[in-house]
Known about the structure:
The complex is a heterodimer.
Chain A: E1 8-13, E2 18-23, H1 26-32, H2 35-46, E3 60-63, E4 78-83, E5 90-95, H3 99-105, E6 110-114, E7 121-126, E8 129-134, H4 143-154, E9 159-162, H5 165-168, E10 176-178, E11 182-184, H6 189-195, E12 198-204, H7 214-229, H8 242-245, H9 251-257, H10 269-272, H11 281-284, E13 288-292, E14 302-305, H12 323-331, H13 338-351, H14 355-370, H15 389-401, H16 405-409, H17 413-420, E15 430-431, E16 434-435, H18 453-457, H19 474-482, H20 495-507, H21 513-533, H22 545-548, H23 565-576, H24 587-592, H25 596-602
Parallel strand pairs in A: 1-6, 7-12
Antiparallel strand pairs in A: 1-2, 3-4, 3-6, 4-5, 7-8, 9-12, 10-11, 13-14, 15-16
Chain B: E1 3-8, H1 11-16, E2 20-24, H2 31-41, E3 61-65, E4 68-70, E5 84-88
Parallel strand pairs in B: 1-5
Antiparallel strand pairs in B: 1-2, 3-4, 3-5
Amino acid sequence: MAKGYMGKILHVDLTSGRLEDEILDEKMLYDFIGGYGLGARILYTRQKAGVDPLGPDNMLGFLTGPLTGTQASFAARLTVVGKSPLTGGWGDSNCGGHFAPYLKFAGYDGVFFTGIAEKPVYLLIDNGKAEIRDAGHLWGRDCYVTEDIIKEKLGAKTECVCIGPPGENRSLLSCIVTRRGAVAGRSGLGAVMGSKRLKAIAVRGDREVPVVDPEGVMEWKKRHIAAMKGPAPPGSVVDKEFPKYGTSHVADPFAQAGNAPIKNWGGIGIIDFPDSSGLSGDAAIANLEKKSGCWHCIVGCEGQLKAGTGQYAYPRGTRRVEYETQGAYGTMCLNNNTESINMVNHLCNCYGIDTISAGCTIAFAMECYEKGILTKADTDGIELTWGNHEAIVAMTEKMARGEGFGRILADGSKVAAEKIGGGSEQYAIHVGGQEIGMHDPKFHQRPGSTAAARYQMDATPGRHTQMGVGPGSYHIHIYNASGWCLLCDLVAANSMIYIQGFMNAITGWERSMDDLLEAGERIANIRHVFNLREGINPLDWRLPDRVIGRPPHREGPLAGITADAEAQIFWTLGAMDWDRHTTVPSKKKLLQLGLGDIAEDFWPAAAAPGGPQ
Amino acid sequence: MPEIKVQLFGFPQSVAARRDVTFTMDDGATLADVIANLRESIPALEGFAIVPGENRLVENFKFNHNGRLVYSDFSAEVNSGDRIALLIQVQGG
Lengths: 613, 93
């Protein structure tokens, strides 16, 4: 058995209470590595198409990777997988913190849940021993209190992921939180957890992650640190300010430069939001108490604030914001008020809702309000005017509590538009039901770019974290599957060289770069075919015209630019050998990737090709 | 002789401490000549956005020239009324 793995995953049937270990197959690990690669393989193989995402048959998985919990540089990431209630297709989300390493120290590479508990429960994994425990005293509590109670009972060396009331109420924007602000935010998987009456998972343990060549690992780490300290290579996206600010220093210049979407994707920074100084890095850290980081991270890009003392009394320990939150709650809402964004960041982390989708949904509601589709009578008296930070905070709290108009917005802009009607649908900016990340594809328009295509063609639509789609993003799937942090590229270039080095030193495999990238391609395919089997063709999703610039802006940094989404998609489909109409991968491609069973599903020998039987 | 205005957005604007710059150029001037003028009129851009001693942009910088993003081929002719913006390609998270 390759090292780097604990060698087993835990299956928990919450209906029956049955707990079962599964010894992992090494070939499956080699082919899919871990994270959402392994998760997609398991769900595709063991879960039928068509299950209710909020029903007992949806599998909810929490996965690590072979680098997790080792001395590799950025090895603390957790991936959550399941069928998404937000999009109806493949769902995954990712967070940092300390939980993933401790899941391995507790003896497992992952844990999967099926069924629905009769009453609220949490799972404890204690050094190889798992137990389902009553969570009646936790149900209804927010994520901060939940984690505090669990740690008080089980000890400070316990790590925990949990949901808050939005997850319990199955809000499609609900997410899974650890350490007061490391959040598995996208795909609505908090609602899946809540649908199972699973409040939390607590892990503790002191098992060591086995490693083949510990000295080799440390040698790679030294090289990686040296690269981080060196000059940023030309053409890289290395950001020397990242250790100080995280990603919180780019929102202000992005708002003016055209990278950040403005005013629900309908504005131009220099015209509609000329003063974005409240989103600067220095504004973000003005109330910083201390820096912090994920488990053993050598950068430590996070931060924790002192208590808010002005209009917004967020508590001490509130996380410093990151760019996506500043975008969704700042540039999208024309909100330049730093403290209000700190406050909503606290509310979202405390209750457990995705800041990207929540902020974008409020921006949608603001546009509806400004255009007269909504009135104060609809919005519980809250004036959702552009830039009204008090309204933004108040409505976020209503969404988190599921109260009044907040309940209408709590499932995202697509669902809200369906309920509101009156022409509001045109202002719901999403792809497949999921709001879009804060990176304007028009800004990234260049030959070979897939910045627009990724929002439509990734298995989790609207996601920015895949960076692209097609061959240019295979390495991102390796980051995720390995348990590695995506933000590594902001610290040093050529991350894949280090991942390859770490992985071979840890596992004992001797994987070439081509082999790893082929694994990335394999993972891209299995996430995609999960959707196809659900009857989803991403070509049926629609990239909103505002997002691609149709028509283009007449002024500002992106004047005249339309992202050539159709061309990007066309070339991506060709590069991946997916059918240009059905997006079904060719039989040849599936066989080349070792996905013979999937080839049989989509290209059965005896029947007409192109669809699962 | 065309009058060319270059707008600066984001980090280039911060470094240059101005929003735009205008110069009068020779007929037939190209984007490469625009870069030469930027080097002369805003020295702070040399080394940051402009390759030192050369009339080309540092990788990761680009022009928006009349709705076309230009990264490396600066041979396009510029004319009065052209919309030219200097942008940086960066990544957030």
